[in-house]
Amino acid sequence: MKLRTHHVFTFGLLTLLDSVLLSDSIVIIVIAGVISVVTNNVIDTLGHEIKGEYISRTPTTHTIPRSMGWGLLTSLPVILALHFLFHSPIELILVTALDGVVAGLSHMILDIFTEKGIYHKVDGKWRRIALAHYSYNNPFANGLATLLGILMLFASLKF
User: Fold this and answer.
1) What is the CA angle 48-52-53, rounded to 5?
2) Residues linked to residue 127 through DSSP beta bridges, in sequence order
3) Measured between alpha carbons, how far is 129 from 135 in angstroms, rounded to an integer?
4) Is the pTM of this model over 0.70?
5) Is the CB of residue 57 less than 8 Å from the CB of residue 111?
6) What's the pLDDT score for residue 159?
């Protein structure tokens, strides 16, 4: 999927999750936005390499456990700022850590529907798994994921 699709989908998902777990506030919207952008940018920047004329995904970030780890790692500066600068309650800090993990996982959820899929290990070797084989820039797939992200964002406003 396109990076902007990842941003919108993850932002909607995190905002919905946060609004269910915590009370509605502008803080959770800002945190969800920051974590969405940073995590998806890190996963795509570190998880792609150039092979000739093509850009290829690597297992560095495009596995389920590693993407969740990268998400948690990218949420760490936000967690530290919440704790040391703003003295936020522990609930907000824990939900922010959860946001990082979910942001990494949401990236894999979208990428598994692309033609190149994501990686998993089989007999010690990296293999790709893909469910729908859409190209990364398929307008239908990107539009649907973006629409789902927007719907989740609006649904979060109802909680």
Assistant:
1) 85
2) 120
3) 14
4) yes
5) yes
6) 65
